[in-house]
């Protein structure tokens, strides 16, 4: 396609459109029938299935063969339509096929030469006269040809055979049938001779030209070759020809020879041979390329002549050649195909442009409506125009006509961009998101903008779309024509919120939408549009055509079709049109009357009076004509399909449907048990234009073009629910692939077949040649080539509707392989909608709960699964393990995750470590590094925008983080506001900066404090075009680019009143609230300004709230108490008028109010008081409902009129508030507090309701840096707690001999059970203000050594007591000494402030465990540099020596060696290594005790500490080392990972090639057994695991939060991760090559559903033991105290005695 054509398509021009590239390879095979049976059967059995697979797997194309000779029955000859059908099919193949479209097989037979079905009556008359003049009897022609005067010019029609010979099709009485058939063939031969004789003599006398004469001599095959090859321009890419010559045909056996030659009167038919030779040997080779023509010569052998056994070699060569050539032509066509994003969008636009052209072709009338549309197109209006009316009223054609006229006549001289979409007719125009993306792509192309800027997410996408419309200019206006907006799917909440209700200049939009008074569901979107676009002029009702216009249209159409009717027939049409003149009805009437001949009997000319009845009649007629069962099933399959069926899918389905095959093959046995393609072709041919072709899942499918057809088909075929389930079930079986890939399907022979063919068996079995249906297709090399999108799209839909839930669960929704494949190829929403569909159709609530668990787990993992579908197994396992008991299907899925998921990601969680759905917490949204001081919901409730020192946006439907913008400010943002159109957000920070963010493009502007005298900023306010920044004494107005537009000062005396709040509706309507500025005085003042002037100032105190129209307010205005009063101010009024006092709360005389709020619908007034909350229901005028907080818990005010908020649940039965760290839930019925939820780790800052549609939720943000979404419906459900620390984990220490680990956070040491994921205890010596820096756990798990606030402690882990404590400030290293009960602690003082580098002394102390006795201590000089990590002392591999990095007198690096047992100095070695500036660390060499590695910044050296010399340098060595001491890993922070051999320093293996990703923190290490290499990348947040043996990556694990500590377990089976959110997760390395890992996972406690109960028992036992221990300690204490007391008393007594 050239540049010019592409430009023209993108501009939406309807001129000279190229054809749409289809997804089909469709080949017409032309041949004579009897002499090519062997070849055709072989192709059908051996070649076509392979080609089908090849096209489908390699290119995603459908492969179809049209063989009109196969399975042709006598009925087909009855109406003489075969030849015409063949020609139409050739045209279809040429139009649709990608690559090859016509293959001809020619032998030595010219073939069947039929007599014409239609003859011009004038031509027939000439022939009659000529023949009569020669004395021939022409009665036979008069009997069989009838003149049809309805044709223009009149045409004579050959009558159906059975209309004259009644038994021609009577299979029930074979004898009568044979008689009639013999008569027919005899009669036909007579007519043939007459025609040829007449034509020849008319040609001789010059009255016929050669072609007219040849028409009467030509065979069907020649006609096919003319249309398929001889008249074709480009045969090279589309046509193949095979010519076969048989030597020595035995003419003795005439019956056999007659199959291969044309025989006439027991000898060769020379005329036929001459015509064939001319075609085969002259015209064909002259036209077709020699590479596309293949000749064969074979011998005649035996009685049969040709037989697969005797001619095996020939057949083999033939099918191989055929296969290769077809493949070559398909590949060639696909190479030209543009499969880029641009190519796909071109296909999409073209489909709509062609549809538009087709609609325009038949358009007629409606001039006045078109005038109105023209006026709209040329005026300055800014609203969209809506065409509405009932289904079938012609909205689509009117819209198409307008699009056509705009381009050609209305906007001449301009270059409009026309965006034409017939919504719902292509897969990319059926759902909103892809539709908007394709529209944005089309606009972007015209303005040369990159496609990459188009967001995928609906809200930013909608905004981007609206932004693109502003690019329209007078020369290049943007015109949108969107048909059937009500057909769009895939939107939540307000379905039409994406529509711009005000269009920018030079932009016009015409929509069409269905509206039927009697059908409120269909009209829903129309009523929505009425509310959104409130001007009457913007709506045009499209009504029925009316009788006169409808009759004019029919006459026009008839004229174009060269048809007419007789008077009686015209009267019938007029009567029908009088009852209904809808265009769809007119179209159906036209299609029916086109079939009427002038001689049709009145009984056969009947018209219905409604659309549905007309369609019913059409179906009935087709059923009569083609067999009821065949038509019923074929149309039912199309109707049942979710998004239509392709031709080959339909043929496959019918070929699997024995009800149909039994009917079709009642009387004979087919060579292949499949439906003959011709049968469906004939049916489709009788449904012209009623089945539309569109693309779905990358395949071209057929579907009903209009809703009315679908409804009628459902009404007719699915009345009986069991029938509907039968079809859904059959389609489900097909996509399950039960009979695919050569698996034969059994069937029962019919009685007639058994009788006719003397069959003894009742049952047969036959391969139906249908393809297999894997989840994905792989190339020969085993590489994934494509996914089976058709299966993903259709299978779940049909299993649900066939109510085959067991199959649905096992194969789809709880099947790991399915979920993984579908997630890898489709958006998450497509997977989730399968679950939603199932839930809506299942009654068993337990099953629905299981489905919702999995769906919500996918939703929660959405952000990760979107980019890492391989993370499916770890995500599901990590979330759903607690639900394994009692949920059979969830358990089945998790077992599959363990078994099959390991091949996609070999890191699988040992226990529940991710948030589980189903409880009260729906999502926890993490990502902020600081407190979240504010968040807003977008107006469509789809997104949360939140602030800390950055802006983060989350998608509420999936919990994905969709935007993360760091504006690089110093402070923390305080208040967040969104503009009304949600395109901008603004906030101010605690150091008075203001940030304005474009939420779509993530561009931001930072404004420094603009207020005079550096006054602090009090707040910001946003309009769609302006931002206002206010302080105590005034405010500034800026545009959104940060330009100052004006300053305003306060209208009040700023000493008495300071500004508290400011908000604008328009530039002339705004409000200011003033406050005294004194915390003791809550008096406030409201100034409200309207376009007509200011209202009187309104005084109130404590709290006030206004409705969104700003006409009503509620406030505390009574002195000395806190009652709430309602005021209104009408448009004309200039002051606030008191309406009434709200019902009093019983304690409002003393209980002060801090805040008033209204809910979203303004039906509820919500008050926050000092000790609780008050709720007023405004609609029902109920009493004030007072809800008190528990004693000692109070609401505090964060600023005037702002405090903790409360919300009412969507079901109006609960109230929920966030106070301190908890959520409090009250019953509104009783005002009682019913639940307290531990919600956050720190104070809740903000709480907002989310109760819209089916959401019944509350959102909270907190100082703990998270935003959480809570599901109120599940508020009383069990919470599956994940243990975590409040602070990030700094390090992990593992015990070798038990499943325990010690973690360090700043506040405490945590002891974790690594098998259950439980945080067993937190150890801190001073519970308040402890600063913990290091901790180790001994290998038996009995003792913990930690450093806390300048002390070294030894703990007894079991009693949690401190056994030893000694001061050692500034500890930098704490290490257990292996194989001993000792540990070393190294301390070093911090640098004085402002000093970068200093030489100081480190102290190393070795102590004994558990008594803490000092074994020895020593001091050595070190270099201390600010910001450089402490360089650790190491033990040599034999444990004999301590090697420390130290500093010599000149502060240069040196190495000192001490005896590890006594601390005696052994050696002091200066480090003189060329190129090594500073030592970063020292590594003991595992295999040589006297060797250590000296590691620099990017190179290392091996040193012998005995000989004090360098052995060798290793260039790329960053410090880690394998157990055998032979290898190290090199992972520079710029990216890449290599395995280096230490002996030569060479790269042995590359795990990750060098990629420029920027500089990130990377961690690389061997696991403890050296079987695996682990690599963490902080930019990607992924841990990659490589198998050491073959370098294969077996896992790419995306961590939930930034990794802060990682270690490998001693057995090498797992890795332990600590993250910044305080969680510890243990992941098994479930290497698929290690089968024992499957058993390991299976036997974990978390995989045992009884485990919880066991744990609870164990906990009870532990509690009992603890109680016993406490009792014992108490008893001992009492004993000691008593003893002491007794001792004291004794002494007192002695003293008294002494006194006396």
TrEMBL record:
This is NACHT and WD repeat domain-containing protein 2. Residues 26-113 form the DUF4062 domain. Keywords: Repeat, WD repeat. The keyword Iron-sulfur does not apply. It comes from Neodiprion lecontei (Redheaded pine sawfly). The keyword Ligase does not apply. Residues 609-722 form the NWD1/2-like winged helix-turn-helix domain. InterPro entries: AAA_16 (IPR041664), Beta-prop_NWD2_C (IPR056534), DUF4062 (IPR025139), NACHT-WD_repeat (IPR052752), NWD1/2-like_WH (IPR057588), P-loop_NTPase (IPR027417), Quinoprotein_ADH-like_sf (IPR011047), WD40/YVTN_repeat-like_dom_sf (IPR015943). Residues 363-505 form the Orc1-like AAA ATPase domain. SUPFAM superfamilies: P-loop containing nucleoside triphosphate hydrolases, Quinoprotein alcohol dehydrogenase-like, WD40 repeat-like. Pfam families: AAA_16, Beta-prop_NWD2_C, DUF4062, WHD_NWD1. It comes from the Eukaryota. Residues 1279-1629 form the NWD2 C-terminal beta-propeller domain. SMART domains: WD40.
């Amino acid at each position: 396609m050239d540049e010019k054509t592409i430009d023209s398509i993108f501009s939406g021009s309807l001129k000279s459109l190229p054809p749409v590239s289809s997804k089909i390879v469709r080949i017409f095979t032309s041949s004579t029938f009897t002499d090519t049976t062997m070849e055709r059967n072989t192709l059908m059995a051996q070649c076509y299935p392979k080609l089908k697979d090849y096209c489908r797997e390699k290119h995603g194309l459908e492969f179809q063969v049209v063989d009109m000779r196969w399975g042709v029955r006598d009925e087909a000859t009855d109406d003489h339509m075969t030849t015409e059908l063949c020609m139409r099919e050739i045209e279809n193949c040429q139009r649709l096929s990608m690559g090859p479209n016509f293959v001809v097989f020619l032998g030595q037979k010219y073939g069947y030469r039929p007599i014409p079905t239609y003859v011009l009556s004038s031509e027939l008359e000439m022939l009659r006269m000529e023949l009569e003049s020669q004395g021939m009897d022409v009665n036979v022609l008069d009997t069989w040809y009838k003149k049809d005067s309805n044709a223009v010019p009149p045409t004579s029609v050959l009558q159906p055979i059975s209309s004259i010979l009644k038994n021609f099709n009577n299979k029930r009485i074979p004898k009568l049938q044979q008689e009639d058939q013999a008569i027919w063939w005899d009669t036909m031969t007579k007519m043939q001779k007459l025609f040829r004789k007449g034509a020849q003599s008319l040609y001789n006398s010059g009255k016929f030209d050669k072609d007219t004469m040849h028409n009467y001599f030509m065979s069907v095959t020649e006609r096919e070759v003319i249309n398929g090859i001889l008249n074709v321009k480009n045969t090279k890419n589309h046509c193949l020809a095979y010519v076969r010559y048989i030597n020595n045909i035995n003419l003795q056996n005439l019956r056999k020879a007659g199959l291969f030659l044309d025989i006439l009167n027991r000898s060769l038919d020379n005329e036929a041979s001459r015509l064939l030779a001319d075609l085969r040997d002259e015209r064909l080779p002259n036209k077709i390329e020699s590479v596309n023509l293949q000749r064969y010569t074979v011998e005649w052998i035996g009685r049969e002549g040709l037989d697969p056994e005797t001619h095996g070699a020939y057949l083999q060569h033939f099918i191989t050649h055929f296969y290769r050539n077809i493949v070559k032509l398909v590949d060639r066509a696909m190479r030209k195909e543009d499969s880029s994003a641009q190519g796909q969008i071109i296909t999409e636009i073209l489909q709509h442009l062609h549809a538009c052209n087709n609609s325009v072709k038949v358009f007629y009338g409606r001039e006045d409506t078109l005038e109105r549309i023209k006026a709209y197109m040329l005026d300055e209006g800014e609203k969209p125009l809506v065409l509405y009316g009932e289904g079938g009223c012609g909205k689509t054609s009117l819209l198409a006509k307008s699009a056509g006229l705009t381009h050609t006549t209305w906007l001449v001289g301009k270059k409009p961009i026309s965006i034409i979409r017939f919504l719902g007719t292509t897969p990319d125009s059926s759902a909103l998101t892809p539709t908007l993306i394709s529209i944005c792509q089309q606009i972007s192309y015209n303005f040369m903008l990159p496609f990459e800027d188009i967001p995928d997410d609906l809200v930013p996408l909608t905004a981007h779309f609206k932004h693109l419309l502003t690019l329209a200019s007078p020369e290049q206006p943007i015109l949108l024509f969107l048909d059937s907006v009500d057909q769009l799917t895939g939107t939540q909440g307000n379905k039409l919120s994406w529509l711009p209700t005000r269009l920018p200049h030079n932009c016009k939009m015409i929509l069409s939408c269905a509206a039927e008074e009697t059908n409120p569901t269909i009209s829903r979107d129309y009523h929505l549009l009425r509310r959104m676009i409130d001007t009457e002029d913007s709506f045009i009702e499209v009504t029925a055509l009316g009788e006169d216009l409808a009759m004019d249209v029919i006459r026009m159409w008839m004229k174009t079709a060269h048809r007419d009717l007789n008077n009686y027939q015209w009267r019938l049409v007029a009567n029908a049109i009088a009852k209904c003149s809808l265009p769809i009805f007119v179209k159906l009437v036209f299609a029916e009357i086109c079939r009427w001949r002038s001689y049709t009997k009145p009984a056969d000319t009947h018209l219905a009076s409604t659309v549905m009845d007309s369609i019913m009649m059409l179906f009935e007629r087709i059923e009569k004509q083609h067999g009821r069962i065949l038509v019923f099933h074929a149309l039912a399959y199309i109707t049942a399909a979710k998004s239509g069926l392709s031709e080959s899918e339909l043929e496959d389905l019918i070929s699997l449907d024995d009800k149909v095959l039994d009917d079709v093959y009642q009387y004979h046995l087919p060579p292949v048990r499949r439906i003959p393609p011709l049968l469906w072709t004939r049916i489709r041919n009788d449904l012209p234009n009623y089945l539309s072709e569109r693309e779905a899942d990358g395949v071209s499918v057929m579907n009903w073009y209009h809703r009315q057809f679908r409804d009628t088909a459902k009404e007719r075929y699915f009345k009986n629910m069991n029938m509907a389930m039968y079809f859904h079930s059959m389609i489900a079986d097909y996509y399950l692939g039960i009979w695919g890939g050569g698996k034969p399907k059994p069937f029962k022979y019919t009685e007639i077949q058994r009788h006719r063919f003397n069959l003894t068996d009742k049952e047969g079995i036959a391969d139906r040649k249908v393809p297999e249906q894997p989840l994905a297709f792989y190339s020969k090399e085993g590489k994934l080539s494509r996914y089976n999108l058709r299966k993903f799209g259709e299978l779940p839909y049909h299993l649900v509707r066939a109510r085959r839930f067991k199959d649905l669960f096992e194969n789809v929704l709880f099947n790991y392989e399915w979920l993984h494949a579908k997630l890898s190829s489709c958006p998450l929403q497509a997977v989730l909608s399968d679950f939603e569909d199932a839930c809506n159709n299942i009654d068993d609530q337990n099953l629905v709960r299981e489905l919702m668990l999995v769906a919500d787990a996918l939703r929660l993992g959405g952000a990760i699964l979107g980019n890492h579908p391989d993370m499916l197994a770890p995500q599901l396992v990590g979330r759903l393990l607690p639900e394994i008991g009692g949920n059979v299907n969830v358990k089945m899925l998790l077992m599959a995750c363990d078994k099959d998921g390991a091949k996609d990601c070999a890191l699988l969680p040992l226990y529940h470590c991710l948030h589980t759905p189903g409880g009260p917490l729906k999502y926890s949204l993490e990502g902020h590094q600081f407190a979240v001081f504010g968040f807003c919901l977008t107006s469509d409730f789809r997104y949360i925008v939140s602030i800390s020192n950055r802006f983060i946006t989350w998608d509420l439907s999936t919990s994905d983080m969709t935007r993360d913008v760091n504006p690089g400010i110093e402070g923390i943002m305080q208040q967040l506001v969104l503009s009304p159109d949600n395109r901008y957000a603004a906030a101010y920070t605690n150091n008075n900066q203001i940030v304005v963010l474009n939420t779509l493009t993530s561009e931001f502007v930072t404004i420094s404090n603009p207020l005079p005298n550096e006054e602090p900023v009090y707040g910001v306010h946003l309009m769609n075009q302006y931002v206002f920044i206010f302080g105590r004494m005034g405010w500034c107005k800026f545009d959104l680019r940060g330009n100052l537009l004006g300053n305003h000062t306060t209208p009040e005396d700023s000493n008495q009143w300071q500004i508290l709040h400011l908000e604008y509706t328009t530039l002339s309507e705004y409000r200011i609230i003033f406050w005294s500025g004194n915390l003791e005085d809550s008096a406030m003042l409201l100034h409200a300004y309207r376009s007509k002037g200011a209202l009187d100032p309104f005084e109130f105190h404590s709290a006030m709230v206004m409705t969104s129209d700003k006409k009503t307010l509620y406030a505390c205005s009574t002195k000395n108490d806190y009652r709430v009063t309602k005021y209104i101010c009408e448009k004309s009024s200039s002051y606030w008028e008191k309406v009434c006092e709200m019902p009093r709360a019983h304690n409002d005389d003393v209980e002060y109010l801090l805040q008033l709020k209204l809910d979203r619908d303004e039906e509820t007034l919500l008050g926050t008081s000092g000790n609780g909350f008050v709720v007023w229901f405004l609609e029902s005028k109920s009493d004030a409902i007072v809800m008190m907080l528990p004693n000692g818990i109070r609401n505090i005010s964060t600023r005037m009129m702002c405090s903790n908020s409360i919300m009412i649940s969507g079901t109006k039965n609960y109230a929920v508030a966030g106070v301190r760290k908890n959520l409090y839930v009250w019953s509104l019925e009783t005002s009682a507090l019913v639940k307290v939820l531990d919600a956050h780790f720190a104070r809740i800052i903000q709480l907002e309701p989310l109760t819209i549609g089916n959401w019944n939720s509350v959102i909270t943000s907190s100082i703990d840096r998270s935003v959480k979404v809570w599901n109120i419906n599940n508020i009383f459900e069990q919470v599956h707690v994940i243990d975590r620390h409040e602070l990030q984990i700094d390090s992990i220490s593992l015990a070798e001999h038990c499943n325990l680990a010690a973690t360090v956070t700043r506040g405490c040491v945590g002891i974790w059970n690594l098998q259950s994921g439980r945080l067993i205890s937190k150890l801190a010596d001073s519970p308040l203000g402890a600063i913990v820096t290091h901790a180790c756990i001994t290998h038996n798990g009995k003792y913990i050594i930690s450093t806390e606030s300048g002390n070294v402690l030894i703990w007894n882990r079991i009693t949690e007591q401190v056994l030893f404590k000694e001061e050692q400030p500034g500890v930098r290293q704490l290490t257990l000494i292996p194989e001993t009960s000792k540990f070393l602690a190294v301390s070093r003082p911090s640098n004085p402030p402002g000093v970068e580098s200093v030489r100081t002394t480190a102290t190393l102390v070795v102590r004994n465990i558990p008594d803490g006795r000092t074994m020895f201590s020593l001091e050595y000089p070190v270099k201390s540099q600010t910001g450089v990590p402490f360089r650790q002392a190491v033990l040599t591999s034999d444990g004999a020596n301590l090697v420390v990095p130290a500093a010599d007198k000149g502060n240069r690096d040196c190495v000192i060696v001490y005896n590890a047992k006594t601390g005696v100095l052994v050696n002091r070695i200066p480090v003189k290594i060329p190129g090594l500036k500073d030592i970063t660390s020292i590594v003991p060499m595992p295999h040589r005790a006297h060797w250590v590695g000296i590691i620099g910044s990017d190179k290392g050296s091996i040193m012998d500490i005995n000989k004090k010399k360098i052995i060798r340098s290793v260039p790329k060595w960053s410090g880690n080392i394998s157990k055998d001491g032979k290898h190290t890993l090199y992972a520079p922070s710029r990216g890449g990972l290599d395995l280096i051999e230490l002996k030569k320093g060479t790269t042995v293996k590359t795990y990750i090639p060098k990629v420029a990703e920027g500089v990130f923190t990377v961690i690389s290490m061997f696991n403890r057994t050296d079987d695996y290499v682990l690599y963490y990348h902080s930019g990607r947040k992924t841990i990659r695991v490589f198998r050491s043996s073959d370098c294969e990556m077996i896992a790419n694990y995306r961590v939930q939060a930034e990794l802060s500590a990682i270690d490998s377990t001693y057995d090498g089976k797992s890795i332990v991760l600590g993250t910044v959110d305080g969680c510890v997760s243990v992941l098994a390395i479930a290497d698929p090559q290690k089968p024992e890992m499957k058993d390991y996972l299976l036997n974990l406690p978390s995989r045992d559903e009884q485990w919880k109960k066991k744990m609870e028992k164990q906990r009870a036992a532990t509690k009992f033991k603890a109680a016993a221990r406490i009792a014992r300690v108490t008893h001992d204490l009492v004993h000691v105290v008593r003893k002491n007391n007794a001792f004291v008393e004794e002494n007192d007594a002695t003293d008294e005695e002494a006194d006396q």
